[in-house]
Amino acid sequence: MKKIQSHLSVQNSLAQDALIAGVFEDIDDDFKKLMRTGKLIPKPLLVCSGGTSTRCAANGHWTLDLRSNYQQIHFDASNGKVHMGAGATMKSLLRELSQYNRTFPTGLSGLPGIGYILTGGISPLSRSQGLAIDQILAIKGVWGNGKCFNISKPTKSSSSNEHLIWRGLCGAAPFLGIVTNITLKTYPLKPITVWEATIKKEQFSDVIIQAENATNEFSLQWIWGDQIQLYGIISNDLEDTNDALIKLKKDFGKDSFFKASKVLGLQNIPPFLLKVSNKTKKTKIHCEVIGLLGPAWRNDCDDLIEALDYLISIRPNKNCFIAAQQLGGVSSQISKSFTSFIHRKAIWKPWITASWEAGNSKDKERSLNWLNEAWKVLETNCPGVHLAQLHQHLPWHEKETKKAFDDWLPGLQNLKSQYDPQGILPRL
Ligand SMILES: Cc1cc2nc3c(=O)[nH]c(=O)nc-3n(C[C@H](O)[C@H](O)[C@H](O)COP(=O)(O)OP(=O)(O)OC[C@H]3O[C@@H](n4cnc5c(N)ncnc54)[C@H](O)[C@@H]3O)c2cc1C
């Protein structure tokens, strides 16, 4: 059923402020007919699962909001699989699984919805458990051409076409179809250790090098705004966690803030957020984010840190920042041709957040220019893109899709011409 409404209530403030055409909440026969005949205009149709990105609602566009009718989560204790509707959040998935002492490698926040899984899903546990797409066992939904699909993970005996379709859906589904349900592998729920520290720029290079040399039980996240904040996760598989924490604390020195805690699973990790002053917090902020992917920094560390220091010093708004997540380990062991997440050898995912005061077009322009400049500086070392956020509305969309999919892009475009020939969903 379609509803004419002007705003969609979502987490992302830019999407929330958009003056939309209206909302669909069901994928019924009328809706599928609209898709089939290409009469759903203006294109693209936007899809809202968790509603945390800027492209779940936009001025003048229709949104398919999956949050009302696709919330169900069912854990099957006989095989450890979970069946999840596309309107549930990562927080609700973790909450449901914890009742059975199970868990899933969600990201740094429970707020995102299935968009987190469909776009790759980099977890602080990805180094020991892989990406979120690596846990998908079956996907159900509707192609852009209005036809339904229900597909299981291919095996060695599957046809090359089945492999191609699976590859397209795992990491590039938003361009091809609307996913309504997925089946996922789960893991036993275990305690994890989280540590946080604030360090000086001079200490940063050693921290990066140590992280790059660490075993898969460790992962490092960092965020650089007014300060450099570190956020580490140590999985339960490490036996001598206490020794590791003592060493970390000693390395940072007594002048650095350092705190560690043991929590039961990712649903209990403390928030990973930019620290801003109370005055800055009061302003309503809009933002856009680009995620990059690249190898270990090794010998380039000092130069990159100098470059980052300069970029932070010229950021046009206190809410602009650069952060990163560590990858590698198990996530790099999957073949690059099995999913659309082709940057399997990436060790770092730095992301650049351009923020501006809502409604201030000059501030917006300055921040987006800053993002572009930061991207140019970082792309020599981080040439890939993690398309966790889509930007069809921005001039760099073509560049980001090329950098996200590289030599797989023509294959994806071919899939799009078969499964979304009318371009109902975001363009590639
Ligand atoms: C606080 C926060 C923390 C984050 N941490 C991480 C992290 O640790 N690791 C990581 O990898 N990412 C992280 N992200 C990025 C996030 O996972 C992506 O932006 C993700 O796409 C958001 O999913 P969503 O369901 O909330 O998005 P939505 O805004 O609802 O949708 C995102 C996009 O995906 C498409 N889409 C959504 N649902 C469907 C569907 N069912 N079928 C087809 N297309 C669909 C939409 O068209 C839309 O363009 C984080 C984001 C936030 C806000």
How is this structure best described in words?
By secondary structure, the protein is of the alpha+beta class. The chain has three domains: 2-65; 73-188, Uridine Diphospho-n-acetylenolpyruvylglucosamine Reductase, domain 3 (2-Layer Sandwich); 191-407, 3-Layer(aba) Sandwich (Vanillyl-alcohol Oxidase, Chain A, domain 3), CATH 3.40.462.20. It has helices at residues 13-16, 29-37, 90-98, 115-118, 126-129, 160-176, 201-213, 241-252, 278-281, 301-313, 361-378, 397-405, 409-419; strands at 2-3, 22-24, 46-48, 62-65, 73-76, 81-85, 102-103, 136-143, 148-152, 177-185, 187-188, 191-199, 218-224, 228-234, 257-264, 285-293, 321-326, 348-357, 384-386. An eight-stranded antiparallel sheet has the order 15-12-14-13-17-18-16-19. A five-stranded antiparallel sheet has the order 5-6-10-8-9. The chain binds flavin-adenine dinucleotide.
Features:
Uridine Diphospho-n-acetylenolpyruvylglucosamine Reductase, domain 3, Vanillyl-alcohol Oxidase, Chain A, domain 3, 5-stranded antiparallel sheet, 3 domains, 428 residues, alpha+beta, binds flavin-adenine dinucleotide, 8-stranded antiparallel sheet
